[in-house]
Design a protein that fits this description.
Length: about 240
């Protein structure tokens, strides 16, 4: 998937991926355990990651650059927020999953940051009083496996009040097999089919595009992707 466009006030049309179409993807799915061939992060490893990130932050406030589900479901009390643009990165549905919102029989995709272009999103500030506890909760949510502990880093983002350093996830310049580039047609196929215990990938895409639109952020590729997913779902027989 190619680069994210800049923020726009006017969207190119009506969102085709409707709640009714998303509902076709939702079903009850039992937990299947961790992602195949990945090792769940241990409590000690998580503690070490929290310590490392905390040391890198020092006495400074911790801001988090968010571009997907953390925009509409941060999982912590947000002390402050602002619009932000990360240059040198773009959001893409390139994180392959077989759990959470997918299964081994119907794998799916979630968002990651890929090198190149720019990405419009938000920065969220962790409350100073609960910074360490919130940081641990955030890292436990985003870094679930030992093999990807390095997929958390600091990036410089541009905000209306200047440049700020922010923590972000899945922003590695190396091309690991988890985050290889996925053509839009293939991404649409995977997103349309995938559902897991946490919901469906189509639901995740719908909520993200809707949230971006409400914030007047237009992502050209995500807009095209929701159209392709809608076409696939619209071709399915309605449930009675």
């Amino acid at each position: 998937m190619s680069k994210t466009s800049s923020s726009k006030i006017r969207l190119p049309g009506t969102l085709r991926l409707t709640p009714d179409l998303v509902a076709r993807t939702l079903r009850v799915v039992e937990e299947e355990g961790p992602e195949p061939n990945w090792t769940p992060i241990s409590s000690d490893q998580l503690d070490e990651l929290v310590r490392r990130v905390g040391d890198e932050a020092g006495d400074e406030e911790i801001w988090v650059f968010v571009y997907g589900s953390l925009m509409w479901n941060p999982g912590f009390d947000v002390a402050a927020s602002n619009k932000a643009v990360a240059f040198g990165w773009h959001r893409a549905f390139s994180l392959r999953i077989e759990r959470l919102r997918a299964t081994s029989n119907a794998p799916g995709l979630m968002l990651a940051l890929q090198p190149g272009g720019s990405c419009s999103g938000l920065i969220l500030k962790l409350p100073c009083a609960t910074k360490k506890e919130d940081l641990r909760t955030l890292l436990a949510r985003e870094i679930r496996y030992a093999e990807v502990c390095d997929m958390v880093c600091w990036v410089n983002v541009r905000t209306p009040t200047g440049t700020r350093r922010a923590l972000t996830f899945w922003a590695s310049p190396k091309r690991c097999r988890l985050t290889e580039k996925v053509p839009l047609d293939e991404a649409a196929r995977l997103i349309a089919q995938a559902c897991g215990p946490a919901g469906s990938c189509a639901e995740y895409l719908h909520r993200t595009v809707l949230d971006l639109a409400e914030r007047r952020i237009f992502d050209r590729n995500l807009w095209k992707l929701q159209e392709l997913v809608a076409e696939r779902l619209d071709a399915l027989p309605s449930r009675t």
